[in-house]
UniProtKB/TrEMBL annotation, chains A, B:
<dbReference type="InterPro" id="IPR045851">
    <property type="entry name" value="AMP-bd_C_sf"/>
</dbReference>
<dbReference type="Pfam" id="PF00501">
    <property type="entry name" value="AMP-binding"/>
</dbReference>
<comment type="pathway">
    <text>Quinol/quinone metabolism; menaquinone biosynthesis.</text>
</comment>
<dbReference type="GO" id="GO:0031956">
    <property type="term" value="F:medium-chain fatty acid-CoA ligase activity"/>
</dbReference>
<dbReference type="GO" id="GO:0005524">
    <property type="term" value="F:ATP binding"/>
</dbReference>
<dbReference type="InterPro" id="IPR025110">
    <property type="entry name" value="AMP-bd_C"/>
</dbReference>
<feature type="domain" description="AMP-binding enzyme C-terminal">
    <location>
        <begin position="407"/>
        <end position="482"/>
    </location>
</feature>
<dbReference type="InterPro" id="IPR000873">
    <property type="entry name" value="AMP-dep_synth/lig_dom"/>
</dbReference>
<comment type="function">
    <text>Converts 2-succinylbenzoate (OSB) to 2-succinylbenzoyl-CoA (OSB-CoA).</text>
</comment>
<comment type="similarity">
    <text>Belongs to the ATP-dependent AMP-binding enzyme family. MenE subfamily.</text>
</comment>
<dbReference type="InterPro" id="IPR010192">
    <property type="entry name" value="MenE"/>
</dbReference>
<dbReference type="GO" id="GO:0009234">
    <property type="term" value="P:menaquinone biosynthetic process"/>
</dbReference>
<comment type="pathway">
    <text>Quinol/quinone metabolism; 1,4-dihydroxy-2-naphthoate biosynthesis; 1,4-dihydroxy-2-naphthoate from chorismate: step 5/7.</text>
</comment>
<dbReference type="Pfam" id="PF13193">
    <property type="entry name" value="AMP-binding_C"/>
</dbReference>
<feature type="domain" description="AMP-dependent synthetase/ligase">
    <location>
        <begin position="12"/>
        <end position="357"/>
    </location>
</feature>
<keyword id="KW-0547">Nucleotide-binding</keyword>
<keyword id="KW-0067">ATP-binding</keyword>
Amino acid sequence: MQNETMPNLLIKRAHLTPNRTAIYFQEQALTFNELYERTVKASGRLQALGLRKGQFAGILLKNHLDTVVILFALQLLGVRAVILNNRLTPAELVWQLKDSKASFLILEDTYEETEMVINQQHHPLMTITKSKLSQIEPEEPVIQEEINLNEICTIMYTSGTTGYPKGVMQTFGNHWWSSTGSALNLGTMESDCWLCSVPLFHISGFSILMRSVIYGMPMVLHEHFDVERTIKDIQLKKVTIMSVVGTMLTQIVEALEDRRLPNFFRCMLLGGGPAPLPLLEACVKKEIPVFQSYGMTETSSQIVTLSPEDSLKKLGSAGKPLFPSQLRIELENGEDAKSGTDGEIIVKGPNVTPGYLNRPEATIEKIRHGWFYTGDIGCLDEEGFLYVKDRRSDLIISGGENIYPAEIEAALIAHPAVIDAGVTGINDEKWGQVPAAFIVKKEGIHVSIEELQQFCLERLAKYKVPKAFYFIEQLPRNAAKKLLRRKLREWV
Amino acid sequence: MQNETMPNLLIKRAHLTPNRTAIYFQEQALTFNELYERTVKASGRLQALGLRKGQFAGILLKNHLDTVVILFALQLLGVRAVILNNRLTPAELVWQLKDSKASFLILEDTYEETEMVINQQHHPLMTITKSKLSQIEPEEPVIQEEINLNEICTIMYTSGTTGYPKGVMQTFGNHWWSSTGSALNLGTMESDCWLCSVPLFHISGFSILMRSVIYGMPMVLHEHFDVERTIKDIQLKKVTIMSVVGTMLTQIVEALEDRRLPNFFRCMLLGGGPAPLPLLEACVKKEIPVFQSYGMTETSSQIVTLSPEDSLKKLGSAGKPLFPSQLRIELENGEDAKSGTDGEIIVKGPNVTPGYLNRPEATIEKIRHGWFYTGDIGCLDEEGFLYVKDRRSDLIISGGENIYPAEIEAALIAHPAVIDAGVTGINDEKWGQVPAAFIVKKEGIHVSIEELQQFCLERLAKYKVPKAFYFIEQLPRNAAKKLLRRKLREWV
């Protein structure tokens, strides 16, 4: 097949435009050539450590220039990156590392405790901190001059209705098509510069990295979101595009007060769940161009985005599917929903994952006849614009992080005092949503809310720990004993 | 494979941005939705005529809105377009129609004589003129909602060293990747508008059509190149990009005199053979941004282009290969040439043809291990910029048209008074190059230059007819009797 191979992305970019700025991080600015040279050195170190083409390597790092270098170094070697969410607990991380059969784990120096726990539990894995890695004498790396678009580039874990996280396989082709699909929608110009303060371990952040190299565009990388620094850097670094989730945009709107973003700023690409209409209206008032979008780890970032000319006219819509992608609204009987009628959002396209790592059954369940079943509910208007009504009935989106109730319920039920547990999202002014738990206690055993929270904290990332607990007699279940989370939400 | 299918291009574009202008032609402007509706109707007529998915249909048309509609209508039906050069003689056309096994031929009303000749010679083919087609009652067309990137979209004929034209298969994927590769190089913006006055039957023109639909960008279509209309329309229609060959650019530079192109004009994309340095320097002086490029029918348009930032620094270079593509300079011993050393230009990438229609041997000869052997000579400088030294030793490029000496030689030898003939290119101020013929006459038979010219005119497109004739005793041939065209050029 002719369409399968392509030059290694960073090598090609460094060859095409070596002197363009690739990345701004803290006080540094690196050209693509400098980034490439640093990456070659890092790949030599990783090879000296023992990493080889085709292996899986866990990456547990913060937003940092070094992370960018390591991620590209893995691409040079043909090693697949299992990109881990650094907010997870050691137990959660061990689970994902085992599941992905990762041979190595590269992690922050400050994650010593995590490293210890992982080393106790996960023997066949070799861990190394960032600073130890930097002390290794680099070998001459065996560089993959070409990539195969069907090969796995990255693995990102996402939970599902079962509560067990699944590794989403993202191929080089998925990232490439996502990137070019977005370019055809937003346009690309020489003056473009993309601000990334969303995590690199999420597809929202990682996709900016890929766009930077594919477009030949600088990215401004922040360690984390800081509203004043955002406003300052947009001006200073001439940022034209920024990826945001609702809570970030809310803070920007508030912090701006009477100020305006500069004219060269082209758009806020808004993902991570439907945005409240008042926020979008506030942005219109402050002349902040917002492009709503809809996507997920499985679609390698946005798959539906509102075009520039429709961003005002269709406020609240996520737009239309990117050029290479397709979307349908399917009714329970398998037919297409008429416009205005709700149904399950199903999508197709070269940016959609080929499936879940080592999970053929889950893959078959979610991808049927080439269509990926998102589980989300939405409808199309007469012109074909998507309105996302409800994310997967069980999904809680909190500050851009996806939280799956089943995972929290499983943790809660492990507590000796808990017979049954149900979790749902409740509205939160700052985070959009936060999880709340309904608990059925064992008779005669006392347990406090604080105790349950502490119990969760040891097992779950902090953002997953319920913010509210309700003790009840019995959970609402249907005849088949299936938990009716809809009912829980009504109860809140 | 996930990367194989995509929505039908025009359907998708009309869905995404129905109200954007698709095309300006004469006094008309059509939106993508209007273009789509017209195309659906045309496809209903073509279906009523008998055209079906998978067939080949010859297209012998001029640059016109109707041509655009017919070309897209064929895509809607899944019919492959054999796009014919309307400057060819009936005999040449018959050859290509037979070779491609075309079932239909759609042609201009004014090509009556051509139609007659074709109908006499090529029985299994059904011909229909444009105006007769427009009178057919349209059926409800069976529309291909999806395209397969590996399917043939178009066939364009190109001659070779043998003198027999070969049909270059261009897949949907070839056009897609060419289009996105170019977008990543030049950028795409909402304000873009591309002027097409090069023929739609050449890849230079057809590729603008594809970009228009893929980018959602208007194209201004001219019937032919007219320098004053060009300058006027650039201003009036806010043209930002124009595809040119050397002779067109020369005329623009001269006609501009003291005038300047407007500031919004971004670039002249210059193809069709190496440009003379004085022309490029004149453009610098007049502030006309020129991006030199290198490509051919087999690469579905440019495969190497000079980036904006290098266009002045590397004057005379064709640039670097587009992002998805690769290039090497190969020595005769199969090794890579060092920088500065001449060798054969070989290229690879998803925009490169899978091969020649019904010509497996020619395909194997030109495409080896995934690399396409262009036959052109060039070298790379130390930074990897391509300098094209010489097109295929036997190729004459005249005003953007490729002329293969072997084809003219074969025509000349058919004359009873000619024993042997050799053709080479001579420099020409207006056309860059024109063919010149060296003739060995039969003893005792008289033949005039006028007679030979007339003989050629009946068999070859006008631009292929030699402008100069030299009668000689013997052609320069090597021991293996191979014609040494290099010698001929020295003799001129």
